[in-house]
């Protein structure tokens, strides 16, 4: 069957299902959304095992945690939100908002997150009474298809059309491109290439940019606590999450104490130039990221690059020279590796972060460990990113958590800086059409031309 015919069949079934579902009540919608999240929560271990075995990357225990945590936080965020009928009345401007479906959503899934991303996008789509067709990465097509089969069974059990959620079972680039052309809106979570394809599909697209989170340690903080959070984040799932710290920028006079704390908490520190070159050549041969090492452990990396590292090390920290503007360690590193920089004044720390983001990751996220609100907000004003995460493990915070206000998601927009249409976290609201009723504003006083122009 040709790609156009195959995708046409999926889209036609999705249209039939979506039309049957578009008049569902808020209660009916939320029952389904909850059921999808509960499937991933209840099957967290099995789904994590399938993802690790098929992709060959990441950490089983971390994927279990991620499956449960994302199911929890996304359902908690969605359960109280209105997405059917009148969703708000703003009396002052006289505007009433009515939510309506976007239609058919294409959800492009990365190899690094084959379970939680389709869960998240399916929950968002169903919350808006849409249908969704998932295009998984070819390397994780089996666990993706298994997950969608569980979702379809749940839809049927709750009396909803099973074709509200479908998947390309044998994904190819040709099928993905054809899908993007045929739907109403595209959600593209993955590498820069697939996001560019989404934006060139001719359909409205919600894509994300590249991560390269810069982490600044400010003076006057609890070093032990900050280092613990950074390591926890950098080591999580062997560093494949786009929002985990990539570089740590440390005050000069604190550098030795901070590095000693990193060592005490399980990192392997590299400052010898010969050893640094081994890591550079192994992790970025020819200046390009080594795809075979993405999501691999410190021990696997050490074996490949030819360096002896103790078995209890969880993260590699590599000392970097601020003057080395072309270092590959300034880039995004999708493995548990951190670059370490030093700074004098806080403005210099911001400059280093900006320089690294200009190489990769502009628009995404920075993190800071600080008790100085002035410095935190100066950072926010200066750096071209969509999120500034304060005093937290960035990998498990930027995409939403119970004690931070970022919308729970797996798709983090990077704004126009990152060539994205979103400068916030993707949410269900982005998969809605909104009709606005405008009532006359009573008693409004229209200013005179003199008052306007003086």
**Number of spatially distinct domains:** 2
Distance between the termini: 69 Å
The third-level CATH topology of the largest domain is Aldehyde Dehydrogenase, Chain A, domain 1
Please tell me the CATH architecture of the largest domain by its name. 3-Layer(aba) Sandwich
- What's the CATH class label of the largest domain? Alpha Beta
Helix content: 40-55%
Topology:
Elements: H1 3-21, H2 26-42, H3 44-55, H4 60-78, E1 85-90, E2 95-101, E3 104-108, H5 116-127, E4 131-135, H6 141-157, E5 165-167, H7 173-182, E6 185-188, H8 192-199, E7 205-207, E8 213-217, H9 223-235, E9 245-251, H10 255-264, E10 267-270, H11 273-283, H12 298-305, E11 315-319, E12 337-343, H13 346-359, E13 363-369, H14 373-382, E14 385-390, E15 432-438, H15 449-453
Parallel strand pairs: 3-4, 3-6, 4-5, 6-7, 8-9, 8-13, 9-12, 10-11, 11-12, 13-14
Antiparallel strand pairs: 1-2, 2-15
Helix pairs in contact: 1-7, 2-4, 2-5, 2-6, 3-4, 3-6, 4-5, 9-10, 11-12
Describe the structure.
The chain is of the alpha/beta class and 454 residues long. It folds into two domains: 3-208 and 426-438, Aldehyde Dehydrogenase, Chain A, domain 1 (3-Layer(aba) Sandwich); 213-402, Aldehyde Dehydrogenase, Chain A, domain 2 (3-Layer(aba) Sandwich). It contains 15 helices and 15 strands. It has helices at residues 3-21, 26-42, 44-55, 60-78, 116-127, 141-157, 173-182, 192-199, 223-235, 255-264, 273-283, 298-305, 346-359, 373-382, 449-453; strands at residues 85-90, 95-101, 104-108, 131-135, 165-167, 185-188, 205-207, 213-217, 245-251, 267-270, 315-319, 337-343, 363-369, 385-390, 432-438. The strands form three sheets. A seven-stranded parallel β-sheet has the order 10-11-12-9-8-13-14, with helices on both faces. Strand 8 (213-217), helix 9 (223-235) and strand 9 (245-251) form a beta-alpha-beta unit. Helix 2 packs across helix 6, helix 3 (44-55) crosses helix 4 and helix 11 crosses helix 12 (298-305). The radius of gyration is 23 Å and the shape is globular. The mean pLDDT is 96.
